[in-house]
């Protein structure tokens, strides 16, 4: 079968011929219906080098995957051949306290995980191929009725990651509150929909690109602002001087982190999701009182079920454009150049 593989750091992936995977005991092979192209893959191609993460190329890209059960290893029960499924992406050890709760991203025994701190498409072979090996059937989640794998795929990361970030701030988003989404790309545009579907907060979206701000409006943003030196001031003006209760930064670069801190309300949340490599000085006089600042990584398995439910009911719908394996690089180039809208999904 053909697979889009990252062969080395600081290189672009290449389409090569590899063997079809065969499931061992407890494992599942999924026929891929869609594999989302995430900006993290661009970081893998261009920003990472040996030692940055505890794993290395070569591996097949694609960590947002959905499709149909193709083959079951010995002892796997509860799944049927041909059944539509999503793949839960972060793969922990499966037995530590966190993994038992389905919080694999924060596995505390990563040495016993299939790959430490990664998963399919992140150190192990992912879904940008016709078939994908899932090393443990517990990572295979049945799709709710009516949800197409092409839309389910981005929900496993571009949906799950913002869902987790929004969900942990639900308590700070009552009616009258304001949430700010910085960066309306693959994650951000779904994040806006999740805020609208699960909270009563007013949503302000910020991006450098005009097309992204139009997409934000389509997704239900109440106010859109071009990203720049005046953004914090404008967010304060739009919130009666108070600032935003919750800020979700899907960029994570120096200017967006500074914007987040400057636009946040006291007792607010500033959640850094983007891996833009920026830093933020924190100190008594540097940020609003009781502003909680955190990073988040992906989401839990129970949260994935919740996101898929929102997707199946049409409350959250990624704006997906599809590309063949042959055109996958085009999708990444468009993402890099800022000409992609929403999420690109590779359909092998
Ligand atoms: P994307 O390329 O689809 O979207 C990024 C958006 O940010 C674009 O619309 C771009 O115009 C906008 N942007 C860039 N600079 C900006 C600025 N200064 N101000 C405002 N907007 C700006 O990327 P994506 O796939 O949505 O991923 C976003 C980030 O999140 C990446 O860094 C990615 O690695 C990271 N990520 C993190 C997690 C996690 O678990 N924490 C999961 C997935 C992705
Ligand atoms: Zn991702
Ligand atoms: Zn674990």
Write up this protein.
The chain is an alpha/beta fold and 348 residues long. The chain has 2 domains: 2-157 and 299-346, Medium-chain alcohol dehydrogenases, catalytic domain (Quinone Oxidoreductase, Chain A, domain 1); 169-295, NAD(P)-binding Rossmann-like Domain (Rossmann fold, 3-Layer(aba) Sandwich), CATH 3.40.50. Helix content is 27%, strand content 25%. Strands 3, 5, 6, 9, 10, 17 and 18 form a 7-stranded mixed sheet that branches. Strands 13-12-11-14-15-16 form a 6-stranded parallel sheet, sandwiched between helices. A hairpin with a 7-residue loop joins strand 1 and strand 2. Helix 3 packs across helix 4, helix 3 (149-167) crosses helix 8 (301-312) and helix 6 packs parallel to helix 7. The termini are close together. The mean pLDDT is 98. Nicotinamide-adenine-dinucleotide binds next to helix 1, helix 3, helix 4, strand 12 and helix 7.
């Amino acid at each position: 079968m053909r697979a889009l593989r990252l062969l080395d750091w600081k290189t672009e992936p290449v389409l090569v011929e590899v063997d079809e995977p065969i499931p061992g005991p407890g494992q599942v092979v999924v026929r891929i219906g869609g594999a989302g192209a995430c900006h993290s893959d661009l970081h893998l191609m261009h920003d990472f080098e040996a030692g940055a993460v505890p794993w290395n190329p070569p591996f097949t890209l694609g960590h947002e995957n959905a499709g149909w059960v193709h083959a079951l290893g010995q002892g796997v029960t509860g799944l049927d051949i041909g059944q539509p499924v999503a793949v839960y992406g972060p793969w922990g050890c499966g037995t530590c306290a966190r993994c038992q709760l389905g919080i694999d991203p924060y596995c505390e025994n990563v040495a016993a995980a299939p790959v430490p701190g990664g998963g399919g498409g992140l150190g192990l072979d992912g879904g940008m191929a016709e078939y994908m090996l899932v090393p443990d059937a517990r990572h295979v989640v049945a799709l709710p009725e009516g949800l197409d794998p092409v839309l389910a795929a981005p929900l496993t990361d571009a949906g799950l990651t913002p869902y987790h970030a929004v969900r942990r701030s639900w308590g700070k988003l009552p009616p009258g509150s304001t949430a700010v989404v910085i960066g309306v790309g693959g994650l951000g545009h779904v994040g806006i929909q999740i805020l609208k579907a699960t909270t009563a907060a007013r949503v302000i979206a910020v991006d450098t690109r005009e097309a992204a701000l139009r997409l934000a409006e389509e997704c239900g943003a109440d106010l859109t602002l071009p990203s720049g030196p005046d953004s914090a001031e404008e967010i304060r003006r739009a919130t009666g001087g108070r600032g935003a209760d919750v800020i979700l930064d899907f960029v994570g670069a120096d200017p967006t982190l500074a914007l987040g801190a400057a636009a946040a309300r006291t007792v607010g949340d500033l959640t850094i999701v983007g891996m833009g490599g920026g830093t933020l000085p924190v100190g008594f006089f540097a940020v609003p009182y009781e502003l909680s600042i955190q990073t988040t990584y992906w989401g839990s398995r129970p949260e994935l079920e919740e996101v898929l439910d929102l997707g199946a009911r049409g409350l959250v719908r990624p704006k997906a454009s599809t590309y063949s394996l042959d055109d996958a690089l085009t999708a990444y180039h468009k993402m890099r150049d800022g000409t992609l809208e929403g999420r690109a999904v590779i359909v092998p």
